[in-house]
Amino acid sequence: MSAMDEKLGEEFNREQAECLGVVGLWCGHPDRNARPSIRQAFQVLNLESTWPELPQKMPVPTYHIWPTSLSISSSRGSVTFSSCQAGR
Q: Which Gene3D superfamilies match (predicted)?
């Protein structure tokens, strides 16, 4: 409950607030295979399904390295983006 906006005071449903926090963490899980479908998330948010069991400590996120440049060609011309130009 420490994540709740202080401006709300006590004017919120604690169960719904806790559920929203859990679903948010579930949807943002670093392992994309551990994330829920949108249907699963809505079922939990609507209190129609049980909450997921989240790990006490989330795994460290890993990131895929994309190519440093991308070239796209067509009959109208070509576009090239480098990682520097794309803001990476």
A: Transferase(Phosphotransferase) domain 1
3-state per-residue secondary structure call for the chain? CCCCCHHHCCCCCHHHHHHHHHHHHHHCCCCHHHCCCHHHHHHHHCCCCCCCCCCCCCCCCCCCCCCCEEEEEECCEEEEEECCCCCC
What does each of the 88 residues of the chain score in pLDDT, given as a tens digit? 677 777 777 777 888 888 888 899 899 888 888 899 999 999 999 989 998 888 888 777 777 777 666 555 566 655 555 544 444 4
Report domain extents, the chain.
6-82
